[in-house]
Amino acid sequence: MPFYRAEVVGSLLRPPYLRQARLDFAADRLSTAQFKRHEDRAVDEALALQESCGLDVMTDGELRRSGFVGPLTDYVEGFEALGLDRRRWHRLSDSAEVDLIVPVTVTGKLRRRRSLAAEEFTYARARTARPLKVTLPSPLMLALRYSPEFSADAYPDPFQLFADAVDILRAEVRELASLGCEYIQIDAPEIATLVDPATCRNVYAANGIDPQRMLGEGLDLIEAVADAPGVTFALHLCRGNNAGHWMSAGGYEAISQQVFRRLRRYAIYLLEYDSERAGGFAPLRDLPSDKRVVLGLVSTKHELLEDFASLARRVDEAARHFPFDQMALSTQCGFASVAAGNPLTPATQEAKLRLVSTTARRLWP
Q1: Are 216 and 162 in contact (CB under 8 A)?
Q2: CB-based contact 284:307 (threshold 8 Å)
Q3: Is 41 within 8 Å of 35 (Cβ atoms)?
Q4: Cα–Cα dist 120/328, whole Å
Q5: pLDDT score of 28
Q6: How far apart are CA 233 and CA 133, in angstroms?
Q7: I want to staple 281 with a disulfide (CB 3.0 to 4.6 A). Which of 12, 38, 168, 318 is the partner?
Q8: SS (H, E, C) 285-352
């Protein structure tokens, strides 16, 4: 696969008309055909934005999803919007702890109704000549949708749930490959949140999920998803991204040896590195020599626009631990991992995408 130096992680801010259309569709004020036209318009605009910003590889902005985990929740049975389960997050402004409602909770056995990613890929492929990637959530993301109270009847062992999610994701991967998709990114923020002992204790262990088991059997499940000839697989790691909130803090050294060495099928790692919460670059030494790393140095969580000099300096720091020629640049995460989006304007989003592209061109001409 060509080396893409300037990437977007996945989601883009949803335009107001699309957010309203989703509400109208849920209230039966729009037909499916009418709603799809709103989605199509938003995807067309997202692709045009990325092309104008000069990115090397496109996504459809994840605009057809309720959130980035949509391929595991939007068209899969086994979830309910209970509004009772909560998870602890931190505000970006002051790091204060905030309890945010889990949008859907596992209450029954998973059953795939149809593919979401195939629709995303085939529509976007027909509307751009640029390289296109599809993002899929890690099967272990359902650890954040698992509740001992509501999920245990269907899945006494949460790893049985994750295994069923693997089957659904493998079906998505196989279908995407059959349609000509050559680049698939698996989003696994739950793995990066394991760098924080408080998250391990209060989020996973408190719900009967062993964090060490996630770094063993769990990584093997993530590895099992990346199984399709002709497809390059990438893994994205961040510490949580929910309307500008974050979940965990800590350097990659807590997980780097297990993750970088155990996941052999992933050629590219997109790593959050936009703040001190991500730690230093030394863990990049644990990456095998044949991998590529995409440094997520441009934040999607706030309005502040980074500058070329600071980004170049940080890339230089990273190059002390991993070959410069095997690195690239991206945003730290998506701009709208959840439908509400992060607290920044479309103008800032565009400026940050342009910054990724122009910086990459100057660093790797």
Answers
A1: no
A2: no
A3: no
A4: 25
A5: 96
A6: 10
A7: 318
A8: HHCCCCCEEEEEEECCCCCCCCCHHHHHHHHHHHCCCCCHHHEEEEECCCCCCECCCCCCCHHHHHHH
Q: Are 192 and 222 in contact (CB under 8 A)?
A: no
Q: What does the H/E/C string look like for 145-182?
A: CCCCCCCCCCCCCHHHHHHHHHHHHHHHHHHHHHCCCC
CATH number of the structural domain spanning residue 123: 3.20.20.210
Domain holding 288, by residue range, is 6-363
The model's pLDDT over 57-69, given as tens digits with 9 standing for 90+, comes to 999 999 999 988 9
Calculate ∠ Cα 163-169-173, nearest 5°.
Answer: 140
**Within a domain: residue 140?**
yes
8 Å CB contact between 12 and 61:
yes
- Nearest Cα neighbor of 97 from 247, 275, 251 is 247
Element (H, E) at 34: helix 32-53
Kind of pairing, strands 134-137 and 86-90?
unpaired
**Residues in the chain, overall count:** 365
| Model pTM score | 0.94
Name the pairing type of β-strands 232-237 and 183-187.
Answer: parallel
Which 8-state DSSP code applies to residue 274? S
Number of domains in the chain: 1
**pLDDT tens figures, 274-292:** 989 899 999 999 999 999 9
SS3 45: helix
Tell me if 97 is assigned to some domain.
yes
In a domain, 228, yes or no: yes
| pLDDT interval class at 186 (50, 70, 90) | very high
**Torsion angle in degrees (nearest 10) through CA of 191, 193, 198, 203:** -70
Please report whether residue 1 resides in a domain.
Answer: no
Q: Which pLDDT tens digit goes with each residue over 295-334?
A: 999 999 999 999 999 999 999 999 999 999 999 999 999 9
CA dist 13 and 337 (Å) reads: 9
> And the tokens for 220?
């093997």
